[in-house]
Amino acid sequence: MEFLTHKFGKFYFLHEYANHKVIDALLIEASVRHETINDLPVLPDLASKLEPHILYSSIAGTAAIEDNPIPAEGVKELAENKDIEGYTQKHKQEITNLLSCYDILSDLSKDSSSISLRISEDYIRKIHTVVTAKVPHDRNVPGQYRNGEVLVGNTAHGGVYKPPKNLEDIKNLMAKYIEWLNSDEILQLNPFIRAALAHYHFSLIHPFWDGNGRTARLIETAILEGANIKYVPKMLANIYYKNVDEYYIAYSKTYKLRKNNDASPFLEFVLKSVTTALKEIQDEITFHTRLLIIRDFFRYQFETKDLTKRQYQFLSLLPKHPGPFTLKDLKTNPIYATLYSDVTTQTARRDLKKFEANKYLVKSGDKYIFNYRLLG
Prior knowledge:
376 residues, mainly alpha, Fic-like fold, Arc Repressor Mutant, subunit A, three-stranded antiparallel sheet
């Protein structure tokens, strides 16, 4: 769809993609993996660990795209109201703001009665206000559109893009963006496609002086959470950061195809990121489920006297301390020494041989490692 602005000229809202074979295959894979994850049992204990870990990684990722160096562990400490050293107040404020934004996103998705969450201009202004609150900037005013020129991108990632610079154009484009994003045609798209398109077009309009990238990714997250998609919405920003060159190149390639109404490059990049996120979370849930089954198996072995109490306690320790260890470590490493300090080296060696024979452990040289694939 073309929209003629006052000074910027034509702006193109894209929703088609020429690369049907690749994108449709990615959509099918995303749908299948998402359904599989929904069917996997996630116990409260695992969910309580997954959600914060994903959130902190996401915040670190979306901030890092904008050159904020605070890692996920630092985000966690700020979330717990702890101070962290070695970072500027600006960087810490940006992270604190993003933590607040995810609370707003959570409230919005809970209030949504529709699988296709509608985004309003007021909501975008609210998100931007929180994203940039108390963050020093020469010209940015939280929640207010800019009136002036900014440059986006660089030659290494496909060139420099000049977004609309006139306030009237930006206001008109944002109104049209909201109308287009909430139209029946766009609401009926697969939520992964709609969220990606919302992300892409908002970034092109670039309506604020600062915080546009973070706001664009938060809009994407809101749409996906409004579609009841688990885990992935918060994971994407971190995956974008890990592939930041491809992220910017996808923007540039898509912009060059705007007159063909072809959003293929950006959609393909986002959908590949989605399938990566889904695979990671599926593997994580499967891994923890496997550990629970192994734990129950060892308990059964102990109850049937196939394991001594010491052997059972030792095997129960290993999933929590997955690194390789030697026979000597059983005597010297504090993790194991409480169990093996009072037994002979011959007894400790006999235990390890038993564990290796039963495939509880895998040996390489003089080192042992826990066999997480014990039960297939």
